[in-house]
Amino acid sequence: MDSERKxxxxxxxxxxSRTYFFNIxxxxxxxxxxxxxxxxxxxxxxxxxxxxxxxxxFSAFSNGLKKAIEFAKNKSGE
Length: 78
What we know:
Elements: E1 5-15, E2 18-27, E3 32-42, E4 45-54, H1 58-76
Antiparallel strand pairs: 1-2, 2-3, 3-4
């Protein structure tokens, strides 16, 4: 296990040609952060993208994500 970070939680979501991973990790100092990783097959290889959200930003990030999803749902239902 990496001495810099410990994985506390992991959730894998397969959505069509993409796979998403939601991981909660903890630094050696006890700080928690969320890593969202997207993996998509591109030809014979895989593309990977990732975003990290730190614990102090969880609430603001969650609120923004909820608003964006609600907006998308409401626009597609017109």
